[in-house]
Records
---
Amino acid sequence: PWSETLEIIEVQHGSYLGEDDIVRLQDIYGREVRS
């Protein structure tokens, strides 16, 4: 519907980046949300 392409940029800040450090607003892969 739009003529422009959406670009998403992922940025790491700090020395640690792991699965428990990622905030997912929606998960299309069926993984459980950990609290």
---
Amino acid sequence: MRNPVKFFIYHALFFTALIIQDTHVSKSFFGEESPYIYYIALCLLFTSITCFSGVITNPGIVEENCETTPFFCTSCQCRIPVRAFHCETCRKCIRRRLHHSEWADQCVGLETQLYYFMFLASEFFFLLFSIIEIIVSLCSFHQIQSENRIFGWISNYFLLLIFFPFLVFYLIQVFILFIQHAFILLTNGNVLGVKKRFGIMILILQKKERNPFDLHLLDLNANQVFFHVNNRVWEVPNTPEMKDYISDIHQCGIDYISE
């Protein structure tokens, strides 16, 4: 089963649990006037759309016989465009590659960076609303009308109790990625690698002072992602930062051929 399919199934199961269990979402679903279900459903819908868009969109795969540049991929044994990187999972070079997304089973690259950023934003609010809803529901202990209130509480919310720790862990992962992608977007930054700590994926970002592509204006950097302004072909800037960039990407299997 592919990761995007798992993603949609897990979200559908959790949304079903919110409806089955005694929650505000359930009450709203069955007729009580409440905005909770609309918040959750809207976030879930937007999350699904952005994730699906990222899955079906070509992230920017480098075709053979692309334009000549001084950058050489040691894995593909060919010249690649400026800011293209090789993906070991896709086994291809991707233009402006940031990292490989396990959720979309696709690289986050030139054409999918915006979708992925919007996905992280909508997923963050979906998880935040869901966790708040679970906490509010679990705090309704005094409403349980049962001789054994503990047993009644567990039977009313056992699905939410199962989902809760996974949602908290997932929220931490999404929040970290969202902050890092926001920084990349605003600084026109580069990703040099990925590491995991306690199962949480963390991007290894190139330092801002070593990034030759930073336009030093937030709107100009953001325009390259949101409106694709001058983001197709980057020139090789003759700056001290470019030497730092060349040194940093060497660890990613990218050689610089000056001749």
---
Amino acid sequence: MIGSRSIYVRPASPVYVPPPRVQPRCDLPPLRAETASGSYITFNRRFKPSPPSLTVSRGTAPSLLGQPLHRLMKDVEDLKNEQKAIQLQRKYDEETRRAALEARTAAGVGPGRTMWVDKYRPKKFSDLLGEDRTHRDVMSWLKEWDKCVFKRAAPSKKRKAGAEEEENPYTDALGRPRERILLLSGPPGFGKTTLAHVLTKQAGYRTLEINASDDRNAATVSTRIKNAIEAGGGIMDKGRPVCVVVDEIDGATGGDQSFVKSLIKLIQDVPANRKKNTPARPLRRPIICICNDLYANALRPLRPYARIVRFRKPAPQILVKRLQEVCERESLQADLRVLTSLVDLTGGDVRSCLNTLQFIKSKSRTVTEDQIRTASIGSKDSLTTLQNVWNALFIPLASKERRKRQASSGSDGRYIHRLVPLIASSGDMDRLVQGCFEHYPNLKPLDGSLANVSKLLDGPLGFYDTLSKRVGEGEYEIMGYMAYAITGFHAHLAAPANSTRLTEWPKADYESYQARTVNAEVATTLKTGFPPILRSLFSTTTTLTELIPLLIRIITPPLRPVNANIVKPAERAVLDRLVELMIPHGLSFWAEKAENGQPMMRLEPPIDCFIHYDGKRADDVAAGRFAVRQVVAQAMDAEIARRKSGASGDTRTVKDKLVGMYGAAKPRVSWGTCRLRPRTKLTRPALDPEAELSATPPPPAKRFRAVYKFHEGSSSAVRKCIKMATLM
């Protein structure tokens, strides 16, 4: 205080003094150094201080940028450079394309001839791929028409040493073969259409190709096929006869199968108008039909009239050799291992192999396995194929790739954020899960225990099934979670060892479906040949489980392949009973050649597929030997010919046979012609014996015979009242 006044001094504001930074203690041993005088100095280790941060702390002011500014500027600069490079590349490609087009135009080569499929299409018999026996069978069938078409003798078949000569060879007045239609069946891309074009041209025919999937009505048969066959060769073809090639005939399912029915009518030489007795015009030209599914419903009525040639997968070595020749001509580098992987991936489809190689050639001059994996083979989606999704699920990212993704996107490299968009863009999650389920037994996960498999089936697969069921019931809001369920396969199955295993397209489900369809068609064909009374007794399940196993054992009796003149009576009786059993059931034996070229007798319909599993048969089922089945087939042909001619040794009717077995029936008394005695109140009316003897019997009532023709299906459009006596 100074005087009477008080002087107040405002205290100074406190100065913020940051706390001293505590250096973390370093546990590493100190360093020792020797001076020039020879003494030692010890240096303690300490951590290097971190540079001051240039960014604002998140605690004081949140950052509005997800990345630093210098990185954003660098990204903008890189984007500008990339756009400039793309423009320069487009300009260079346009100039190169224009120069190539001008060069092709100057050389007289059009742009439509650049497809390798057309460029390397076989032109002669020696260029064909596949089994030579199949090619010879088709050419042999075409040569059997030489007598009818070219008016020259057909070449005689070379008989192998030791082979028996056919007793009753088929003869036709016009020199045509027994089967007037050739049916080529096999998967797409195996060269069926190419084979038909090459062999018909080499045999001297002009090829007329018709696609049955587009022209599937009966008018096509009468307008195009029939007119082309009757017109003969044209001026431009130097008078060559025509050979009709009907492609994709298994797709002719419209119009109540009118196309196939009209084709059968054409080869059967049916008169155009039976009422006017118009003579039929016989078929004088060969017809070749091509199909992918031999047992399609549309081909059921056509199979008995056609000679069937089945195409099998060509040998991988032959196909790899042909692809290697193509790569050498096109200056494309590809080793045998890569081409073998391509053949395995396409399933032997030559067309897909050539298209894939041409696609790779447009981008580089070297073919690698990575390019084959990423190529769009058999898939219409070029952005995200199922093959890429399976590789992403089963093969984890390398550490270098993971760090690269983390540095570029800032993510932690977790698989869920990477796989969910990839799975969602695949477009077919059901097929994707089906492929995962089919591939997991062939993979090598890090944990190969049964517990891991159990977790996989109960976890991701079970969760996906639950979601799929709920979506099918109408709960579409949970559809977005289905991709997350599929990512669980990566956690259980991903391993680096899976990179050496190519994931193939799932085919086990389709193969089982195709086998089930074939078996159902065989069972339906067998039931169709049954009499109506037997068809009503056996359902499809009963036919497969009870009738066919016993029927196979019955039609394979222990017979000896001996001459018919020295057959024992007991064996003759067994053979007669076998023939009487097989004819009503529609069973027969057809001669053909096995894969190794040996002759064999095939059972038609092939009901033995229901008791043979993986090529094995039961011990109590006798092996169907060729000689025994040939004897049975000859006996069946003789019996069928005898029935058609009406020359039967036993002329008794069914009524005579029943009388011999059970005796004659007692005569029935006609009550309408008897006089009744006068009756009283206590007596019943009785017959008068004298009147009964003197009465003349009335003329027998005229009985009529009803004839019914069975058509498969049901219809209530036509009804007719009949009596039970008509059906008895």
